[in-house]
Amino acid sequence: MALTIPPVASPSGTEAPRVQLFPALTAEQMARITSHGRVRSVQAGEVLLEAGERKPRIFVVTAGRLEVVRPSPLGEDLVTILERGEFSGEVGTLAGRPVLVRIRALEPGEVIEVDRDHLLSIVQNDTELSDLMMRAFILRRVQLVARGLGDVVLVGSSHCSGTLRIKEFLTRNSHPYSEIDLDVETDVQALLDRFQVSVADIPVLICRSKTVLRNPTNQQIADCLGFNAAIDQTKPRDLVIVGAGPSGLAAAVYAASEGLDVLVVEANAPGGQAGATSRIENYLGFPAGISGQDLTTRAQAQAQKFGAQLMVASGATRMVCSRKPYRIAVDGGQEIEAWAVILATGAEYRKLALENVTAFEGAGI
């Protein structure tokens, strides 16, 4: 099954034309990128990048064409075709997250292959390329999310609190997913049988058409999708920031842009309370207002551009300050060492003092 993706809304609310999603580099720009990568020839049908790979990289087409597809239980969905001067990648590449798409050569050609470390060097040091690539990366992630072109399928019910929790977690982490609502879809028994799940198991998450998670925790989802796969939790950091709301992400941008090794630890998803706000009218620099999700997406991409890393679904539980480096314990029992710590835990809405109230959040409350 092939699906061609039409333009979608950009973070500013206007449609993003293809020239912004997939801009063509000039010969001079490609020459600058060549110094950060390696030039290689490709053959027709050759798979350059496979969905799920944990060593993300980008390809700049110098000759020929590349096909970008999203593998799915029904085959492949066509995302786009890259031609000369166009490049692959999105914000997940900067974060070191597993690849969402498969990239395959349509014909013999040539590409420039750039790994994540050299890509970070480009966006940190080349202003022209940084502006062009960062905008494209952000808009591409927006497109993938809007069209549900991810590596995970959520099977659930709109009346199930567990389903709503998982949807919120994936959305707040800007991770694209497909949804099968059993209250709406009726012809799904073949899919359920294939993965040996029943209606009683919902919510069910199918990761990369392989792993089946029944009512998973947010931590299990993060582990399955590799949200924290690129993070080395054993090395001491210059700075650890606890909390990934606007203040925590702002601190990450400032510190990482000055060359510090920064890790942000977040118990749930980036954005804090602001990330769940449909419209923010009083945030400095946005006189027309901006949604909390758009603000979070931009701030997270900006922090990752400078090399800051974000660990989600891993709350800080304890901090030992008796000696340096400080030690921050996180969910799961690991300890992270840091020479400096910023606590940006933000605010949390009060809840009704009712028994079992959490079981009904999002499903009536």
From TrEMBL:
SMART domains: cNMP. Residues 21-140 form the Cyclic nucleotide-binding domain. This is FAD-dependent oxidoreductase. It comes from Eiseniibacteriota bacterium. InterPro entries: cNMP-bd_dom (IPR000595), cNMP-bd_dom_sf (IPR018490), FAD/NAD-bd_sf (IPR036188), FAD/NAD-binding_dom (IPR023753), Ferredoxin-NADP_redctase_2 (IPR050097), RmlC-like_jellyroll (IPR014710). The keyword Signal does not apply. Keywords: Flavoprotein, Oxidoreductase. SUPFAM superfamilies: cAMP-binding domain-like (SSF51206), FAD/NAD(P)-binding domain (SSF51905). The lineage of its organism: Bacteria, Candidatus Eiseniibacteriota. It comes from the Bacteria. The keyword Nucleus does not apply. PROSITE patterns: CNMP_BINDING_3. One of its GO terms (molecular function) is oxidoreductase activity.
